Amino acid sequence: MPNYAVDSTRQPMTATGIVEPVMEWEETPDGRRRPSERQARLEATGMPLWEVEVFYRSESWGRESTVTAKVAVANFPQIDG
Q: What is the per-residue DSSP string for 37-79?
């Protein structure tokens, strides 16, 4: 799956409410890759990764449409204060 940096101030997105854990990939004995049962984590902090489905407006060939995509985010702790 490709990764893209997104400037959310220039490309507004709205969450649909669908959230799923990002699973790590593992290699099977026959050389294939498949999702494992372990949730992927952010390397720097160890926080679990989640995919949030979002929709946004896109224009292609002069035609506007609504597009859905999944955005991976880390589960950051809430800071009270």
A: EEEPB-TTT-PBEEEEEEEEEEEETTEEEEEEEEEEEE-PPP-
